[in-house]
Amino acid sequence: MPYYRVVGEVPRKRHVQFRRPDGGLYAEELMGEEGFSSDSSLLYHRHLPTAIVKAEAVEPDEAAVLTPNLPLSPRHFRTQDLPAGGDLVTGRGLIAGNADVRMSYAATEAPSGLYRNSMGDECVYVASGRVTFESTYGAIEAGEGDYVVVPTGTIHRWVPQGRVTAFVIEASGHIRPPKRYLSKYGQFLEHAPYCERDLRTPAEPLTAEGEDVPVLVRTRGGLTRLVYRNHPFDVVGWDGCLYPYAFNINDFEPIVKGIHAPPPVHQTFEGPNFVICSFCPRPLDFHPDAVPIPYNHHNVDSDELMFYAGGDYTARKGSGIDVGSVSLHPAGFTHGPQPGAVEAVLEAVRQGHTRTNELAVMVDTFRPLDLGPAGLSVEDPAYAWTWSR
């Protein structure tokens, strides 16, 4: 993250003796990206973070296998029809993905076990409900509309308060604010649609007792369950620029133009070969001759996946798209408003309609997206032909 934080107790200088009340040393741990050349944080543990007593391989999840989008076609997946189950880690139903990013959906009331994704960062969008994110850095309370960004390697768990639904984005690398929003020193610039004040981070350490504590670890080699001698939630303090945080989609300040602007104005985060955009309620385009609705477009270098989180998508009326839907528009296919949508929105403007009421999370990828079994299980087979009606 672009700014420095201190939580709990830390010594005055890095890598010096830092002693417990009983005189023993706290164990210092560096969490760092890109081989000591990017953001990092130092965490101070009561016990050794290296002390494991058991390691066992976990069989791969066959429900996480991807298949090519063939024949090439736009797709509509109804996540509303997916069964609830598991937790926010094991209950993820894979919708689509590629070597850079995977998108899943989860609906659950169950707390997860401890989990560490060592393949890349995660961005979990809470679509409904409330959940506590607990980690070695501390806890974050999250609710509807929150993005929770989890750095690679963070040991964490999810504790829902009732039923929670979430759209999960798993990267093969790091998820960050777009560079164009930041100064060369990492501060959000004045033109950015959000800033440091909008980000919520752990405010105090979170500690838990326990011995022989299992942690599910995902690496590029597969899944392993490591058993730690002591509970990993034993950090008394940390400092640095690498930590989990939450950002609510309603704190995104839309960039408005007189004539319809393309999706980059909605960009919220960037990852390796993909971007994440937030479509939020905003004033309609205000040029007297504006067509305040997306034009037909063909992104020749990217696939576009959209999770419809709330509101009303005028441009998609008649397509079957509803809250909870996921659409996939692949490169090689031109997409745009449904037939009649342009005339309908122009008539609404003439009658005094001045704002959009849409809420959606979009992921654009620069490699083709393959299809996941959960998505295929709830696909609307008629969607591809809705522009021909």
UniProtKB/TrEMBL annotation:
SUPFAM superfamilies: RmlC-like cupins. GO terms for biological process: L-phenylalanine catabolic process; tyrosine metabolic process. InterPro entries: HgmA_C, HgmA_N, Homogentis_dOase, RmlC-like_jellyroll, RmlC_Cupin_sf. Homogentisate binds at Y313, H335. GO terms for cellular component: cytoplasm. Residues 23-248 form the Homogentisate 1,2-dioxygenase N-terminal domain. Pfam families: HgmA_C, HgmA_N. The active site is at H260. Fe cation binds at H297, D303, H335. Residues 273-383 form the Homogentisate 1,2-dioxygenase C-terminal domain. Keywords: Dioxygenase, Iron, Metal-binding, Oxidoreductase. GO terms for molecular function: homogentisate 1,2-dioxygenase activity; metal ion binding. It comes from the Bacteria. Its cofactor is Fe cation. Belongs to the homogentisate dioxygenase family. This is Homogentisate 1,2-dioxygenase.
